[in-house]
Write a structure and sequence with these properties.
With 364 residues, this protein is mainly β. It has one domain (31-296): Jelly Rolls, CATH 2.60.120.10. Helix content is 8%, strand content 40%. A hairpin with a 2-residue loop joins strand 15 and strand 16. The protein starts with 45 loop residues before the first strand and ends with a strand.
């Protein structure tokens, strides 16, 4: 990876009391994005800004439905995203999910604060914590469980992260399940030209810098932290869609500086670059402006989704429920069989599916 540093004065990031996943000792020592020339590369316009409603997931942990109210066509190749927390649990309160199935897509879980434990029927799993990512390809089918470890349940503590669902094209719906354990130390760190923003590239390639996540569907996924008053323009592939979700703080997006705050999603139109700016005044508990920048190559295929399955047709979703009930999607490993196999979020029986629609997403 290479990127020539630009000779601009640096704006210092506040690293005290900030998200652990985004801290760095010396941002000025990092490679930098190139300067985007607006006369040559068009800044993407902002098409819409929506506010994520709050809800509960799994055994009752709070989430924000980041993509609520946005069309699947605008999100493609993504279908669902939850911001998990930010919540400070008291002892005994941390919650997770029971064992549940998936088919037809990939889940990406990124932890900012706290610890999450994952196990699946394909033998994947482990602990993820500050800045770690677990990338699970459900493909033809898998069972998994996500929960805080027992010692964290006993002690309580801060919990904050997100889970993204990445669709798979028809030809890969039945790909073999796969698990990637991406440590925080493996994520590519890049600075903006003036040093006022830190970019963590989790997957995909941006301006020649590549993240560690291996993707079936071409995407780019970044966690960007901007110091108060800083701005960054990120070169972006023309054939990708473009989304920015605010994890914390206040700022603006696009050349027109449309206001964006914590819990809001911006959808961009066509162009060559994405501009994000941080407000000069931030809250003391969130001194920087933290955003997810994501996009990918649209699949442009029909989407039928219900509960834990994302397929192309209603018949395929019905078949997934039947296969799950028959045990075809996998079995709970013996060492984890003592964990209750509860109902999944948004799950319905095949009979209910026959009577209802197939457009109900659920996280997991």
């Amino acid at each position: 990876m290479q990127g020539p540093p630009a000779p601009f004065p640096a704006v210092s990031l506040v690293v005290e009391d900030t998200m652990p996943a985004v801290t760095v000792d010396n941002i000025l020592a990092l490679p930098r994005l190139r300067h985007v020339d607006p006369a040559v590369e068009r800044d993407r316009p902002v098409v819409s800004i929506t506010t994520a409603p709050s809800g509960l997931e799994g055994e009752g942990f709070p989430v924000r439905r980041a993509f609520a109210g946005v069309s699947l066509a605008a999100l493609d190749p993504f279908v669902h995203m939850d911001q998990m927390g930010e919540v400070e649990y008291a002892p005994g309160e941390p919650k997770g999910t029971p064992w549940h199935p998936h088919r037809g897509f990939e889940t990406v879980t990124y932890m900012i604060d706290g610890i999450f434990e994952h196990h699946d029927s394909n033998g994947g799993g482990g602990l993820i914590t500050n800045g770690d990512t677990q990338w699970m390809t459900a493909g033809r089918g898998i069972l998994h469980i996500e929960r805080p470890p027992e010692y964290l349940v006993a002690s309580g503590g801060l919990f904050h992260g997100f889970q993204l669902w990445v669709n798979l094209p028809r030809r890969l719906k039945f790909a073999p399940p796969r698990y990637q354990d991406i440590r925080a130390s493996a994520v590519s760190l890049v600075a903006s030209p003036d040093g006022g923003a830190l970019l963590r590239i989790i997957a995909g390639e941006v301006d020649g810098f590549r993240g560690p996540g291996i993707t079936h569907t071409p995407i780019a996924l970044l966690h960007v932290t901007l110091a108060a008053g800083a701005s960054v323009t990120v070169p972006w592939p023309r054939h990708f869609n473009a989304l920015v979700y605010a994890l914390g703080g206040f700022g603006a997006v696009g050349a027109g500086r449309h206001p964006l705050r914590y819990g809001q999603l911006a959808v961009f139109g066509a162009g060559d670059a994405i501009t994000v700016s941080a407000s000069k005044q931030q809250e003391s508990r969130s001194p920087n402006f933290d955003v997810l920048v994501l996009g990918g190559e649209p699949i442009r295929e029909p989407v039928a989704m219900y509960g834990p399955f994302v397929m192309n047709t209603k018949a395929e979703v019905l078949q997934a429920f039947e296969d799950y009930q028959k045990g075809i999607l996998g079995t709970i490993p013996a060492e984890h069989a003592v964990v209750p196999h509860g109902s999944v979020r948004g799950q319905a029986s095949a009979d209910e599916m026959t009577a209802g629609g197939t457009d109900q997403p659920a996280a997991g």
